[in-house]
Amino acid sequence: MNQDYIKPDNWSIIEEGFDAERVKSSESLFSIGNGAMGQRANFEETYSGETFQGSYIAGIYYPDKTKVGWWKNGYPKYFAKVLNAPNWIGIDIEINEENLDLNTCTEVRNFRRELNMKEGWYNRSFEAVLKNGTEIAVNIRRFLSLDLDEAGVIKYDITPLNKDAKIVYKPYIDAGVTNEDANWEEKFWEPLEVKKGTNEAFVTAQTFKTHFKVTTFMHNTILANGENINVSPSTIDSTTDKVQYTYGTIIAKGQTSSIQKIGGYTVSLNHENTLAGAEKVIKSAVALGYETLLQNQIDAWAKVWEMSDITIEGDVKAQQGIRFNIFQLNQTYSGKDSRLNIGPKGFTGEKYGGSTYWDTEAYCIPFYMATKDQQVARNLLTYRYNQLDKAIENAKDNLGFKNGAALYPMVTMNGEECHNEWEITHEEIHRNGAIAFAIYNYNRYTGDYSYIPEKGLEVLIGIARFWHQRASFSKDKNQYVILGVTGPNEYENNINNNFYTNYIAKWCIDFAAEQIEKVASEYPADHKRVMDKVSLSANEIQEWKKVADDMYFPISKELGIYLQQDGFLDKDLVPVKDLDKSQRPINQKWSWDRVLRSPYIKQADVLQGFYFFEDHFSKEELKRNFEFYESFTVHESSLSPCVHSIQAAALDKMDMAYTFYLRTSRLDLDDYNKEVEEGCHITSMAGTWMSIVEGFGGMRVKNDQLHFSPKIPKEWKGYSFKINFRNQILKVAVNHNETTFTVDGDQDLTIIVNGKPEIASKFVQIN
């Protein structure tokens, strides 16, 4: 834990007291989104202190030319930037002719932020003394509408406390924005058109290179004590990329002046005419009005929480943590659009770039399958199917592979590889396996096999072809090996025979071959269509199988474990507990050379294989491998604690499971890795959900049935969650005395609890 200023609360993220040192961290933590767009919790008014400005639009990106010191063949030509979008929230404010700026105020008191996760709004309030002696009380509420997802709303209230005040509001929209992480300090936005109305304005701009067109809009209403006073702007200032209106008002001491600002974006992904689309959004939002928009927001979030909430009794910090994670996941991805995906920072920052990593398939799909309609998960699979041609092109052009072999990108926006670290781009090839596993996992959980003959089989064939060509035969070992890779543990590069990579490569080939046979038997028309399209012969499949059947796995017979890679035991095996705490996190303290030579593990690697393929190994094998590798794991990846929590629970190491759960659920709230100001770790938040449902709840799917082995941390009085399993809603409630399984509806559901079949229906309890 590196920060502890967020107040414990079951439903809200709360900060009290103004501290300029934590402004950027709070901008991340209090971020809001609605699946179509999102923004950091930047101040609406001028702030001259340190800040990280950020607004983002789903699917909009810029191909920033790769910048490296030494170019290697195969480097991606660009790194896809999550673009800082035009600013629509800005409202410069003057009070008695002095600019409101919390960085320069004489005093700031009673400062409070609240992110109300239950109702989906962000509130900031404070009292301030300006240099001119004017004292004011301010309250601002902001939300991004879930229903009208191209629109956001701000209500900014100012009450003078010690004298009457002349208040000047200067709301603006501005497309002249830049990214903090731009490689070449290029401008990403080209202004096209500005349009001004009485109280509304529009700036249309397009991205250079990618030519996404975006119209940013605003509509302003000035109020006194809650009543619209029908003020028109006294001046309108504009440039090619910015429009700013000025509204002057006078308000008596103790009375409240307000501006309501509706703003947002319409994009060419969804509109042929973005300006006309923006005018329509404003018309709809104004017709509804602030109070109705807010109530609709509250109602929409109530529906989200009805299915996705997890309750924890007796541990407020744990409860706050899981709800924060679930809230951010639902803000980031709604599942409406198969062109979109879940970026590792969501709408909270620019780091990493791209919208898709293997995190989606490995961690996020289980959450969306269980808490949404299965179509949402199917959309995520379809996203990869639609980019199969690019994956084949990637393997061909960058690695010299042939015959339709597919390597999915480590990072992508449109299917092209855009990660700019060579050792990750070309060596962390295990991501292919996660994509194949997600297809298997979707079918296992939903029972919907139709995706495989329709789309998935082509993906599996491309991936199997990749592994067949990537493996090489070792005469010394008389087996197939995979050389020069980076496993999930990115603290080892260019190593040979990473266990996880080799294991999932074998599994991918075997699974692809099995599905080819099944589709041939049960979906002959689809089988013929796919075989004709990919020109796959029985002889080629036999060649694949030779690789899978003779794949090499490094092991230590002495320790009874699989080795993370061939040379792992050659390292100086000093466990983490003996590492000086002043040296943590090692990725911020040590040279990269020292990190690579150390035994320290960034995240689950061998144990990632045990997580995916739990049924392939005995409990004793898991115990030996877990105890060995956990002792060297520094958990400096956000994806690490959740897997360890699930496996600790499976091994009845409940104190450890709880500690890992708390770390994954509060990774950002407590800033464990000293980096939250860069944005939150969105994709790993799905792992927090897994830590409860799969870890403490022990949920698994085997032979088309749900299995549970419920456990409860001693720190909790009880917990509950819901899952949508094959269109049946099951609620699981666990306390120290009993576990209750309740089915929503009249149809019973047979489940397996601690290895024993039970009927879960209304009011049936399993003790």
TrEMBL record:
The active site is at E490. Residues 699-757 form the Glycoside hydrolase family 65 C-terminal domain. Pfam families: Glyco_hydro_65C, Glyco_hydro_65m, Glyco_hydro_65N. One of its GO terms (biological process) is carbohydrate metabolic process. Residues 323-690 form the Glycoside hydrolase family 65 central catalytic domain. Keywords: Glycosyltransferase, Transferase. InterPro entries: 6-hairpin_glycosidase_sf, 6hp_glycosidase-like_sf, Gal_mutarotase_sf_dom, GH65_N, Glyco_hydro_65_C, Glyco_hydro_65_M, Glyco_hydro_65_N, Malt_Pase/Glycosyl_Hdrlase. The keyword Transferase applies. SUPFAM superfamilies: Galactose mutarotase-like, Six-hairpin glycosidases. Its EC number is 2.4.1.8. One of its GO terms (molecular function) is carbohydrate binding. It is an enzyme of class 2 (transferase). Residues 14-268 form the Glycoside hydrolase family 65 N-terminal domain. Substrate binds at W358, D359, K602, Q603. Belongs to the glycosyl hydrolase 65 family. This is Maltose phosphorylase.
